[in-house]
Amino acid sequence: MLETIDSTNDEALRRINTGVVGGEVILARRQTAGRGRHGQTWESPPGNLYLSITVDPPDGRPVGELAFVAGLAAAEAIEAATGGNVRVMLKWPNDLMHAGRKLGGLLIEGATGTGVRTLAVGLGVNLVSFPENASYPATSLAEAGCRVEAIAVAQAFHNHLDGWLRNWANNCFEPVRTAWLARAAGLGGELVVHLPDGKEWIGLFQDIDEQGALVLQTENGMTRTVTAGAIFSVTG
Ligand code: BTN
């Protein structure tokens, strides 16, 4: 385990840019420039999990599907590492939730080199502490009554990710979609979707479609489909 790094994702991207392919694991005790989605800072004090794994998505699969594959692997890994004592749900597309609060998240990024297909899959899990003033209420495994070592979650994530990557390569997106829906936080309930232009869409969270887009039923009975790229944030 690295003692201190700017960001495990930055380190993964640096390695990818020097020719590293899938299967590289970077685990750090703390990060000085941890990043979340939407350009947010990811507070990274010692004690929590900061991990990145390099992944080569299977040929022919849209890379956007990896968000769901990695989310499932992370949810299963946390549950396995806690001996099944904590139930983890997924808030679209891949926030890791427990008891309605955010336990962790994933940041998937590509390298800058042209033609490079390898991606950095970054996972942060609040093991012992969580930010008090985060944009979404947070929690930790310690608060849920579980003491788990970072290395145990890291190993479980590596294994579960490997299994889901194979399943995705062999059977395409449908098994991923089905398993994801079984863990979907807020399914059937009201969601507020914030678009980058400041607009808001409110609707009932009905489904995710065969591309992983969020399917919302709005007040006037219309169905709206929202792709991950068109979203700033989702609450509900
Ligand atoms: C989110 O906003 O929900 C995603 C958070 C991802 C944080 C992890 S911690 C390990 C990796 N390195 C980073 O800088 N970010 C990701």
Task: Describe the overall structure.
This protein is of the alpha+beta class and 236 residues long. It contains four helices and twelve strands. It has helices spanning 8-17, 66-81, 150-171, 174-181; strands spanning 2-5, 25-31, 49-55, 89-91, 95-98, 101-110, 119-125, 190-194, 200-208, 214-218, 223-226, 233-235. The strands form two sheets. A seven-stranded mixed beta sheet has the order 1-2-3-7-6-5-4, with helices on both faces. Strands 11-10-9-8-12 form a five-stranded antiparallel beta sheet, with no helix packed on it. The longest helix has 22 residues, at 150-171. The mean pLDDT is 93. Biotin binds at residues 7-9, 31, 34-37, 40, 42, 50-52, 95, 105-107, 122-124.
Give the SSE layout.
Layout: E1 2-5, H1 8-17, E2 25-31, E3 49-55, H2 66-81, E4 89-91, E5 95-98, E6 101-110, E7 119-125, H3 150-171, H4 174-181, E8 190-194, E9 200-208, E10 214-218, E11 223-226, E12 233-235
Parallel strand pairs: 1-2
Antiparallel strand pairs: 2-3, 3-7, 4-5, 5-6, 6-7, 8-9, 8-12, 9-10, 10-11
Bound molecules: biotin.
- Structural class label: alpha+beta
> Ligands bound here?
biotin
Helical percentage: 10-25%
The whole-number mean of residue pLDDT values reads: 93
What portion of residues belong to β-strands? 25-35%
Major sheet attributes: 7 strands, mixed
Major β-sheet strand ordering: 1-2-3-7-6-5-4
Q: Termini distance?
A: 36 Å
Fill in the keyword field for this structure.
236 residues; alpha+beta; 7-stranded mixed sheet; 4 helices; single chain; globular; 5-stranded antiparallel sheet; binds biotin
